[in-house]
Amino acid sequence: MIKRLLAGAVGAGVLGGLGFLYYAWYPPIATIEPPKASSFSAEQIERGRIVAAEGYCAECHTRTDNGGGPELAGDYKMETPFGAIYSSNITPDPEMGIGAWSEEALRRSLRYGVSRQGVHLIPAFPYDHFTKMTDQDISDLYAFLMTRPAVHMARRPNELPFPLSLRIFQAGWKLMFFTPGVYKPDPSHDALWNRGAYLAEGNAHCGACHTPRNLMGAEKKGSMYDGAVVDAWIAPPLNDKNPTPTTWTEDELYQYLRFGVAPLHGPAGGPMSPIPHRFLSQVPEYDVHALAHYFADVDHAAERQGHDKAALAHAMEESKKDLIGPNTLDADARLYQGACGACHYNAAPMPVLGRPELALNNALWLDEPTNLYQVMLHGLTAEEGQSGIAMPSFYNALSDTDMARIAAYLRRTRTTLPPWTDLEKKAADIRKTVKTIPVNSSH
């Protein structure tokens, strides 16, 4: 009996292994001669440019360290809990890039996370979102990519330890966490909402940064848009868990995504900054409106904004106390006034655009002071945040103790939340993530 059970278990294991190998195996797709630019219409290339902009292709496929690199030539370094990963060259170079790829090969990589050669792609390439793209968008993207300048540049090898470096493990990851399939419109919503959902959940892959991940690096589907840590910044929640006292309304979202600054919530900084300035400012307004419309529904803005008037009035009152009232006797308040107050003071009834009201900003209401510290240390250039308005870096001007005092002061006077803890240590830890002292650093 025991022998039969063991034999059955071995047989089941063998069959399971063979079944997994069958599931994991993909044949190579034949190479082609790089298509001529004249084989694509100007209209299709333009549509593909929009698809590439809405998918932020250049953001992750252009090297930024070591002096930077040519656009779309890859070698962008992505730090993951498992090791560094370097992005692929997606220019039409036939050897180093995708010039020898057919449209079918590109479609397979986006829909199933498998390269032309039949190799499983690492999900740092968010094919779990791109799988939702339509055939038309993929065809247009192919036309755009194949008409970019070819760059003969190799990327650095990934730094994943064995056995994670074996790509067959990616097939196992897919078996657990990946469901391929084109986006299906929700008939209970209008066309604008469905366009926004298609972009957010598909090509724009918003959840890749704003959804927390499990220990295997997969997005937690039950925590969609709950916020996550990305590149030592916090990508805040995009749903009704966003803690700011005034609601991210559809108009606030549109202004932020289109122009890089929301009247009440302030400017886009850190890894988010290129999204409005470099990409979404270059696409049809309808699509940006669609994203704003979708996320306003995700965060239940219509039901939540009833308290906004009172929250805004309270924020204006607290800002005034820094100049008139008990806050002027607080040593931490004086430090804040000397370093920050001149640019962040507001008076009723509304914050001045370009003078962010910190009492309404995500950075003060998150569970950690991460984003507040990052902005203090990096500052914002005139190309980031609100166009033409800069904030200097205080990397040299403020010590970790100074930053901790300002953070504690703002948390206790601008929010109704418990104080942050270990502020000096966290300031020192965030300072270590700054790889290059910003050129606009205060002295």
UniProtKB/TrEMBL annotation:
Claim: Transcription is one of the keywords in the record: no
Protein's cellular compartments: Cell membrane
Record GO cellular component, one term: plasma membrane
TM annotation in the entry: 5-26
Gene Ontology terms, MF aspect: electron transfer activity; heme binding; iron ion binding; oxidoreductase activity, acting on CH-OH group of donors
Cofactor comment: Binds 3 heme c groups covalently per subunit.
Domain Cytochrome c: from-to ranges: 43-149, 191-299, 327-414
Binding site for heme c 2: 206, 209-210
Keywords: Cell membrane, Heme, Iron, Membrane, Metal-binding, Repeat, Signal, Transmembrane, Transmembrane helix
Annotated positions binding heme c 3: 340, 343-344
InterPro entries given in the database record: Cyt_c-like_dom (IPR009056), Cyt_c-like_dom_sf (IPR036909), Cytochrome_c-type_DH (IPR051459), Membr-bd_ADH_cyt_c (IPR014353)
Cofactor(s), by name: heme c
List of residues binding heme c 1: 57, 60-61
Protein name: Cytochrome c
Origin species: Acetobacter orleanensis
